[in-house]
User: Fold these one by one.
Assistant:
Number 1:
Amino acid sequence: MLNTAIHLLLLLLLPPLLPGVINKTKALFAGRQGPPLLQSYYDLAKLMRKDLVLSSTTTWIFVAAPVVTLVAVLLAGLLLPLGPFGAPIAFTGDLILFAYLLGLGRFFTTAAALDTGSAFEGMGAAREVTFACLAEPALFFALLALAKISGALDLSAMLHDPLAGPLHTVMAPLVLVAIGLFIVLLAENCRIPVDDPNTHLELTMIHEVMVLDHSGPLLGLVLYGAAIKLFVLSALILHVIAPFQTGHPWVDWPMFVGEMLGLAVGVGVTESIMARLQMRHVPYLLIAAVLFCGFGFVLLVR
Amino acid sequence: MMSLWLMFGAIALLCVSGGPALLGPRRSALGQRVATGLVVLGSALGLVGVGLALAARTPVSLAVGWFLPAGRFAVGLDPLSAVFLVPIFLVPALGSVYGLEYWPQAQHPENGRKLSFFYGLLAGAMALVVIARNGVLFLIVWEVMAMASFFAATAEDDDPAVRSAGWVYLVATHIGTLCLIAMFALWKHATGTYMFGMPSTGNWAATTQADAMPLGLAGAIFVLALIGFGCKAGLMPLHVWLPGTHANAPSHVSAVMSGVMLKMGVYGIVRMAGVLPVGPSWWGGVVLGVGAATGVLGIAMALGQGDLKRLLAYSSIENIGIILMGVGLAVLGRTYHRPEWVLLGLGGALLHVWNHGLFKSLLFLNAGSVMHAAHTRAIDRLGGLGSRMPRTAGLFLLGAVAICALPPLNGFVSEWLIYLGLLHTVAPGNSPGIPPGTAPGLPVAALGAVALAMIGALAAACFVKLLGAAFLGTPRTAAAEHAHDPRKTMLGPMIVLAAGCILLGLAPWLAAPLLERVATGWSGELVPAGTAIQALAPLTSISLAAGGLIAGTGVLLVLLYQMLKRRTVARAGTWDCGYARPTARMQYTGSSFAQFLMSLWTWALWPQIERPQVAGLFPPAPGAAEVAGKTPARIAGAGAGARFAMFLPDTILERLVLPTFRLANRLLPKLRLLQQGRIQIYVIYFLGIVLLLLLWGRIGF
């Protein structure tokens, strides 16, 4: 019960910290001071108080989309175990619901982008759905590999302790899966090298350009949903790269938060040392992710 | 038996439903109402019959002597038939009501009566197909179904495009039927009877020796079934007839063909896989592989289409692929003695048969409404319909979410079952002769889950494209500008179908008992009677999650609404980088939306791209180049200057099938040498063949 409460609190409160950590890391690399760690919280608070400007082209889909997306990623977050603790909702096959909830969010985000009738937002939506077509197979290869290792078909059991098996057989596949999932994490959350969240040119954006016309509370919902998605996918990947546990909740929870922030620093470092890829080269990166996860799976079943 | 008699009554009503109108005047609204009334009445009777049959819990069958020498007139109604009968009695009835406003006889005097007649006949024939238990009877009603659908689909036969699509369909369906004739001939040879799938506890002695037939023969029957029924279902590469026919048929006919008639092919494959002996592993492997390829290529083709109904038709091919993946898994489950693969694979596939029947019919009827309002099928000439026909747009959104298999609607549930089945292949299981829990899995089958994931992402791209280009943004043409919602007669059937999508999404466990019974009967008790699908796949959890998703969205929307009530909500133009006057033509069209993704698929799809060749750092404007005489040869013919166009013709039809037929057309006339047109010569041929046969019999092969 307490663990469920902590899960919920972390899921609701921690995500906006991650962009803050990433930006701080990037600022340190660039020799800047950077925005405060809590900047995302300030932004959200400010946006929620603001008025709203809606494009005269849009329909109700435009208003509903951020809400649907937010609820979908929140529900996905409830399906995913955090650290060594079981998820609040767990049943056989929840991994597929997890993946498709993220898909539902994508459907509505891209639909809302097209609702504005803007060429820029159409462009962003087209890129988003294109990259998803490669990210989805990678994610499923990774899930297959984890299901194969654990012999379980629900996320809580699957992700509980991937290293429990014989270490020499699962180590190499897990490394491959971790690399693949990390690429998926970068692509799904539109980070460098796939997308540059700080870019100033609409032509080169993916996620930012899709939400150009969202303003005020709607933009707040969009940003909050994006942060939660980053949190959820990070929590998934943490199970593979840092499956450590002590068995004591008061050690494991802080450790989980620490790992999460560490991963955010890792993303920030990646963003700092890499340039954004040319848009037409992004598919190659994602195909590499499919291959990493695919090889991981093949190694397990050979 | 009551259920069977109801069924006969229903089928008779459906078959004659268009009859009275034929006797009436061409423009008679009364005739069409009578036809619709009969179809609805017949369908209601049929549904009651199906309900009675299922309540009785034992399969009913009937076999009586008839006028043909081939066995007896045999029909049966078991849970498998019942699964397919439900959409047969649901979709055509709704489509018929829809047709009252969509295709009124008063406005279509030249083909309205013909359409009504063949529409009813098609529905009746489909019902007979799934209850026929004699090969010859099956072939007869199969042919009636094919011809009825041909005439219904080519209602507007004054249009050359319709005629040419009809021709392709006619040829394709008969190639399939030829395979089925060969299949039933082999079946008779192997078992000694034309009967198949009769319950052994029926009122006649079932003496099929199906289980004793040699595996090679069984394999041949299986392959013929896969090709023959695959032609009807639209398996790649046998799908060539499907897009053209569906695009050119009246929309309510497209809905019936796509939502229901394609499933007759699925029915055939499932039925034959069930009555044949347990086969080697390549049977299931082939079905699973072909299903995956059909799914991925079908939806990739759909993505490149610029025609609303062609896109939906390709998406039907994709869904047939998904269904076949489930069937393939179930066939593998029989081979490897894995009840969980059978239950999840077959259960998912059959549930998807229902689901696809619901949402694809909904989308085709929706496409009909769009065409009714905007008079075009070209996606890139629409736009902005969402604010002009909000009800249609809302129903379309619902159908699109369902067909992309997104929670909380029904498409997700059936794909989820298939996913689960595929995931079960990575885990060891139980198999006779091996210690429990150690029988190896079949991880290669799990690759199907990855294919399904890709299909899901592509489908989402495809339907976002359709939704965005047709319903969102601003209208691109005057016709789209003045579009409006249809009246209740057209909206009503769509609302019923949408309600079905929601119901099966929120309460999928309603279908579970039926699916369990089918799996038990189909697998010959490999799945023990009374096995609950819930034990493998917690449908109630899906139900709760779907409910939670809807409730959460609802609550948050209300909160947002309350919050926005206290704020100023200003309206302004869409942000276009400060550009003051964006026009509708600046929007991303459907083709531009799909272009990036299509560029990743050129290796498989071979789209035709027309564009000017650009050379040098400062390429001259095409008009100027023409003056200077430097126009590249490729655009000289196009003559439209800087014009980009991309078409995605059906690769297999254009590059494989049509060239083959043209070659045949060139070569085969040489055979006319045999065709002298003289009776005497034909009699000599007969004599020669009879002598050869006698000789063959003598030598005694």
Note: The beta strands of chain A are 52-55.
Number 2:
Amino acid sequence: MAQHVAQPTATTPTLPAKLPLSAVVPWAAFFGILMLVLLYFVGAEQGATSLVSGAGVHEWVHDARHLLGFPCH
Amino acid sequence: MNSATVRNLLVRGMLAGLGAGLLALVVAYFLGEPGVDSAIGFEEAHAPAHEHEVELVSRSLQSTAGLATGVLVYGIAFGGIAALAFCFALGRVGRFSARATALLLSGAALLAVYVVPFLKYPANPPSVGDPDTIGKRTSLYFLMMVLSVLLAIAATILGKRLAPRLGTWYATVVALAAFAVVIGLAYAFLPVINEVPADFPATLLWRFRLSALAIQATLWGGLGLIFGELAERLLNPKPAAVPAAGVPAAN
């Protein structure tokens, strides 16, 4: 009995099931935007556009911005 | 249950992004920083008109804590995005295990997010780039990145649609060719940007761009491997608890 149950997992590699879109979309919408905001602060804030006044953010991530390929001053 | 799975994958993606970011940080510090320093040296020697105000953040902070902040936040953010993309791709792109899906996805992301935009608008060291065109350069760079990612998604969907008619091999070839043609058109029609000063050392520019590429390859390669491992263990736990403790010889 136990062997009968175990056999399929041993012989065929288990292919993962799809995650239903209804479960993925809410997370993707909220966290996707949050992640993009993070990327904006690393890649573009106080360059072409400025949400925070001054140049502190730009200067702090200056080297990362150059090395990660973002246009920088 | 499924929503919890997505949440768990997202957390793992961000952790994997942090790990991959640490690897990329090592590459950035040892391969990239010497180039940044040389380029700043060039800038100071060759552009006396560009007067320097009081520096807000010292070079030693920029090249360590500042660099780390940027690279790690970048890693975490793309780790999260990759995990969400993985949730969509899992079981939908083809007959791949969780681990293989993660590596395939991160390889595709390296190409679509970085390499394709980089070939048109490559990374530039300090002193390359006119401050007056930052707006134009930023919009073009992000346009290229968004275009490339959307086209990669479209190509994946096209490949899946064609697969029943053409078979997986030819469907993949056609989808990749379609991607290359449209990207080639974008390369041809988007404006060229060349703001390299005439006497900027060519080898320094080349080494800087190679190091930028190495950072991304490390980041995405690391992300694919680490996240793949974490996702595989979450979705396909080893049946260690299933056989009774008394039969170690059975397996």
Note: Helices of chain A lie at 2-11, 21-43, 56-60, 62-67.
Number 3:
Amino acid sequence: MTASPIRTVLADDHELMRSGLRGELGDRFEVVGEADDADGAIDVITARSPDLVVCDLHMPRGGGLAVVQRCATVCPIVILTVSEAERDLLDAVASGAAGYLLKTTPVDELRDALTAAAAGEPVFSPSLAALVLGEFRRLAKAADADPLTEREREVLQLVARGKTYKELGVGLGISPRTAENHVRNILGKLHLSRRSDLVRYAVEHGLD
Amino acid sequence: MVHHRSTLFPTGLTVIRALVIARWIALAWMIAIVVFDRAELRHPIVAWLAVGVTFALTATSTWLVRTHPARLAGTAFVSCEVALALGLSIVDGYVFEPGHVFGTTQSLATQWPLLAMASAGVALGPLVAGALGLLVGPAEWIGAILNGFDAFVPRQVVSFIATSLFFAAVGVVVGWLARQLRRVEGEIADRRARDEVGRVLHDTVLQTLALVERRTSTTDPELADAARTADRDLRAFLFGSTSRSVADLESRVRSEIERVRTGHTTPVTVSVLDDGCGLDDRAQQLVARAIAEAVANALQHAAATRVVVFVETDDGGQVFASVADDGVGFDPSVPRTSHGLDRSVIGRIEELGGRVEITSAPGDGTEVCLWTGSRARGSSA
């Protein structure tokens, strides 16, 4: 990790935010491209194929959701947002974002989380876990079948309570790696459930 | 102006447009009656004059709906229409041969009393429309007298009273529905406006505050603190209790936590999954206070870098809450005199018949878990 810096693309329509981030990221990251809207971000990501994208949720002409939908397979995308009360935040995560960070996240935590994201770990904050837990409950009620296993629900609840993978591994008698895999599976299921929602919507509305 | 604005709520406008079409149908119907029953007319010129006046009103309404739709709901137009409906009910008895009014043939007034009551209901409200509806019976009564009927035949009088009551009811019902719709649509419009304001503030001001907070946290702690406070107040307004009319568990928890957070810089993240809390207002308030006190305790004593609050309800409507910090922790086996949790948290929850569990170790943070109700163990692990 220390050998070569993480090649990062920053997408945010606030120039000040980008320059602030650029300064804060430090030596571990190398900013290889910047964009101030979704189209620009998609172009830069396609051209530079970075290791990591840090992308604002709301930008003119399409925000983080559009970027995630187009580029989630290229590299991990971490969504930056000013609040968790955003309707499309969960959509972005469900579409394949590696997670999200609040713009008020302290610098050290931000760097650590982004490093983990670049290494392919989901950035799964307690509030995101709670958001996902709530989403699955909604799905379970609507579909009358819970897509989550008992263990996955436990993992989600423990993450929502602020436990690290290590701590919740100890609590459940599993390794941190297994705990992380559970989180990955949960995100996969979220992704799938969202897609089947779309399929159902398309069928109901006669779209092909 | 204010009057016009208030009468022309979106559905009201739709009703008024629909009434224009209904007027043309009523006019056509009226002409058909005059043509087919022409043999029974004793004053055909008056009948055609009535048709002419009705046409004038119908044409005027068509013109108004294109140019000044608000005027269709104005007192002037509605008065004309009610007057026309009453006039036609009277003239009906005058233009036809005696015996017409209680005969099988159609009345010249056709649907006009109904249209007039619908207009009046939308434009003038249930009381006025209801009162105007009462006039239809007497108008028909006069028509019947002009048609040669005896004024005080009890069965006929009863019939006119029934007519009055019917049209009064139409006026009241339409007026009441219109009023309800106007209120609901007003609320929706207010809500939209508020959401729009919220969105704009969110996209601009919160972004800027977050930026100030980040950029000044090391160089200018005071400014960073000011930005944090402004950020918090704005959030509380946009997402918090002030934007909800009904206090629910989430807004209670958030506002109680906001109260104890003041003056502390440690970030506190709060997640509430409320799938239907079964506790009454007082119990919800107690739980919210207990949670907030646990947060206050963490902020004051734990020297934590973050505090995570998680609240959920179970199928039975009972509450589970966890307040976790990554601070200094303590050894729970060592008796302690004042770590603040005993009375403020445990006392409140035990009052509700619930229980509290504290997990901690020196250097390893603290988690306070609380359950309301007597369930042995909540959905926690």
Note: Strands of chain B lie at 268-273, 307-313, 319-325, 355-360, 366-371.
Number 4:
Amino acid sequence: MLKLKLIRRENESTMARLIVPVLSIIMAFGCGWIFLALSGYLPAVVFAKMFNGALGSPYAISETIVKAVPLMVAGLAISLAFRMKLWNIGAEGQIYMGAFAASGMALALGNGSPYVIIPIMMIAAFAAGALWGLVPGLLKAYWQVNETIITLMLNYVAIYWVDYLVFGPWKDPNSMGFPLTPIFSPAAQLPTWGDSRVHLGLLLAGIIAIVFYLVVQYTRWGYEVRVMGESSQAAKYAGMNVAKNIMLVMMVSGGIAGIAGMIEVAGITHRLQQGVSPGYGYTAIIVAWLARLNPFAIIIVAFLFGALLVGGFAVQIVGVSFSITQILQGTVLFFLLAGEIFLRYRLVLAREEAV
Amino acid sequence: MDNTALSALLAATMIAGTPILFAAAGELLAERSGILNLGVEGMMLVGAAFGFICTLSTGNHWLGLLAALAGGGFMASIHGLITITLRGNQVVSGLALTIFGSGLSGFLGKSYQGAPMLFKFESLHVPVLGNIPFLGPVLFRHDPMVYLCILMAAAMWYLLYKTRWGLTIRSVGENPQAADAVGINVGRVRFLCTIVGGMMAGLGGAYISLVYAPTWQENMTAGRGWIAVALVIFALWNPSRAIIGAYLFGGIEALTFRLQTMGIHISSFFLAMFPYIATIVVLVLVTIRRRQDAGAPEALGLAYDREER
């Protein structure tokens, strides 16, 4: 009897590495098409609206970039930890802590020179995010406490902490009851490109991606991180300090995610408010995974996911719920995860052995 | 605080603990078999939406519960297909499931936003016991789901620790290689546990939309799926401890709504952090002390591949 069998590959297939993500996106949109048709919508109209809303005009593209920036920065942050097989799913909380620390600085310093205030906000955001990454890193390094669970739990601690501040001590007395802090002084706001909302954060994301690539590819530390991701045993035998590097990677990963929070408050909202990140930290995990942790691919994928977010708002005009964006995001990831088996295995038709 | 207020708080605790316990008991089963499913929130939402829509359109809340079971089970089967059959990453798949479930339930429920639930579960009034002062309203005057949920968690404990099936499930979660060697079909056991786990999450979600709220709101589970994930760890993968934990976390939720009226001056946000911080503390203590009987299943989160021994 002939049967399909999975045979392990010696090396990851380069072809599959390119084809699988692209095919995942196409198939997810195919599923979305069928789903919309079954729900009584005209899929062609909906997707055209989505495309136009996200990429159809200079304004649309600028809004897509605005949504993509935090995904780029947080995606880069996550990919560093994932490279070492540290499952940091705490970017959401690290974003909130970064936003909290940056806002604290902005509110405390008031007006002044942006060349002083912006760097201070950035350092504070990095430190707060790094702390939020260091806690699970420390626990993992010395006691092998599961970092997935700790980072996940810390997300909620950070979100409720920001909620406490914006509903309580930091609330703007003139906000008419809305959970917001007062608006930052102009010196604490990132400069924008022309009339659009595209801000300096985009440049920062690009710089982080380049530095990230150079460090991982060309430095001794980057090499160590890659080796430790492959096998912590091998790294130990080679005399690498795994515990120290776990803490360091989690700190830097958390710190960069914290910068994403700073960019969001300094570039977009110009104040701390409830729900400052609507799940960027989780979407960034999809972005990093889809980009296979490659820093430049992260920039591109984040742009696509920014487009999906903005397009999701646009389709509401034709009566489709924003939820379609989440359905598409989830489906892309399902296909990608399912398709990854072809990177590691070959599908062959084999004769079933008689038992 | 007077007796009436305390009795009302404890009665609300029983209600608030119910959806968490349903979902946590289900997740506990899946994790015991070695499958970490972070999609609980998404499975609960789909269960809540399916249950709500089916009940409103058929007028029968039992049919609604069936739909919720189907919805949760369907969601979990996606996770099973990806992580068990195709050996994909469990963490990422679970997150995808949560995002997908939030989208699917929001999409299906769009036209029901804010609609009231017309068909309600009648509260039971246990004869004699229900008339006991104080304890009566706290324990014996709830809807049948509250009791069903405790029964299910207790049955889960019995299944895991007192039956052959339980031994099989635990062995698959602790050491799939050994289980495979004695002829257990690792994939099948894990798939079954994952799907049953999803069905229970679906029930937990439906409890929120049918009884607790009782209405449909987008993302109405409001993080309870994550509380359930936390609870499994807090309970150290033991259903009997999960029952206690569910009412502890449920009690905190009930308390957050009553703080102001009771004149307690803590911010409700700090109270809301408690389940997560408590879970971190418990996980850290247990891992550091390396208690063999109380740790996570050894193979939790790892795909099983026969050729990788």
Note: The first helix of chain B runs from residue 3 to 32.
